[in-house]
Amino acid sequence: MKHLAFPVSWLLLTALAFPASATEDARRSSIAPVPSYVEEASAAGIDHTYDGAWEYFVGGGAAIFDCDGDRRPDLFLAGGKNPARLYRNLSLTAGPLKFEPVETDLTEKQSGKVLGAYPLDFNNDGILDLVLLRLGENLLLEGKGACRFDVANRALEFDGGREWTTAFSATFEPELDYPTLAFGNYVDRSAPGAPWGTCHDNFLFRPEKGADGSLRYPEATRLSPGYCTLSILFTDWNRSGEPALRISNDRHYYRGGEEQLWAVPPGRPPRPYRKSDGWQHLKIWGMGIASVDLDVDGYPEYALTSMGDTKLQKLDAGADETVPVYQDIAFDLGVTAHRPYSGDDLKPSTGWHSEFQDVNNDGLWDLFIAKGNVEAMPDFASYDPDNLLLGQWDGTFTEAGDTAGIGLDRRGRGAGLADFNADGLLDLVVVNRAAPVSLFRNTGQGSAAAPKPLGNWLAVEIRQPGQPNNRAVGARISVKTGNHTVVKDIQVGAGHASGQMGFVHFGLGVAERANVRVRWPDGDWSHGYRVFANGHVIIERGAEKAKLWYPE
Q1: Which of 232, 288, 489, 523 is the right S-S partner for 305, CB 3.0 to 4.6 Å?
Q2: Residue 113 and residue 58 in contact, taking contact as beta carbons nearer than 8 Å
Q3: How far is CA 470 from the centre of its chain?
Q4: CA distance 508 to 423
Q5: What does the pLDDT read at residue 26?
Q6: Among 509, 518, 512, 510, which residue's Cα sits nearest to residue 546?
Q7: With 80 as the cut, is the pLDDT of residue 471 above it?
Q8: Of 230, 261, 219, 231, whose CA–CA distance to 243 is shortest?
Q9: Alpha-carbon distance 226 to 254, whole Å?
Q10: Rounded average pLDDT over 271-280
Q11: Mean of pLDDT values over 224-234
């Protein structure tokens, strides 16, 4: 299937795909509203810093997930040389953010040297587990409920290794009941000549069943060569139903390397895409990946953060499903984010975590980028505030970080956007290097004392009860309002050392209702669910109606 060129004319494409009413015409000619963010980490009870020697210049992730079963997103924060911390969410609906620290059963040794974390239900018991990326042995933490976890490495025959692990992704392959895990590794510090050109291989773990049918991860497949990976993502780039593994690498340390795409055919060894496959050589200081289908043509776009400019890749108009040829549309859409947008430092930026979300509920995807100098690199900006790029109806993006209030003088690393107080506005957590974690409450177009709503919204959680992959990793949620459609994939990975799982947020603009459909991981589509705006809905596979969840 061929697809339309981009951005020949986003307005023309939108007009052809979604004939607009007079109301929609007026809305699309307007400027996207800017949300107001208030930093309140200390007031919310979060006192945590990611820090350490040069091994912790990278990493600094956050896992956002519900660890106690109340459907409110809790926080696990990497600490580097400091112990990682788990915080339970106590925020009242539409009120100030509030968290309390939770003591875990991790030993001091296990909670230290953590660079990142991702939630995933790897054993299909309905309770979210955690995957910890560490300088040393990685850990699979089995969730036991009530924010309790057991280290499951030995029980799962999982070798956490001794590498410097900085990236993670997971997918459910066909015919496998449990997830396939991919770990991205950084510099091999023990190799001669380290750190230059001494990158570890990456690892792929496919699940096996023990004699009793239980989960095992007894052996890793090496993805060689590795080029000092900082972000990876299982992504169905060509909508073939077979996710490939996208890998973003840091050119600062590798030699002869490039960005990578690995085919992961079910039941067969992985293989890298090469020039003969159409894969183009791209060499960047790759830090983070964000993915979303911006123009709803069926193929995802990829935002790749780097030292310097951000890339925004779209599958080339002349390519088909077999050839991964991409064009960079970042300059055309205004998302290069190559220099600080405020202050007088004109040196290049350093981008880390990237994430597509709708922070102002106007029905368009926005792009957040955490920024910060690696340490004290003189050729790059020292004051480098995080970006908040708001999507516009003409397809471009406009910087709003300074106006929104997130432009602090800190060195951001991992991050995440989630609705911590269930008010329909996405809040923001940023893990900073050698500085306290930032926690921003989204107050809409109002103040902390008097928040005001933005557009309407919808939060969707999907489940496959009684089946493997009960969280439906690999599914696609489609939300239609009038003649406008947005889609979001359920993925585990990407960002920078940071992941989340739970309700998926959609802005609805002025629409008061929406039609939701789910493309399940095996390719089957659900029927349409008609739902009202400004609520949380849970869609279970095969259910006639969506369930509603009302936060207390």
Answers
A1: 288
A2: no
A3: 20
A4: 14
A5: 47
A6: 518
A7: yes
A8: 261
A9: 9
A10: 95
A11: 98
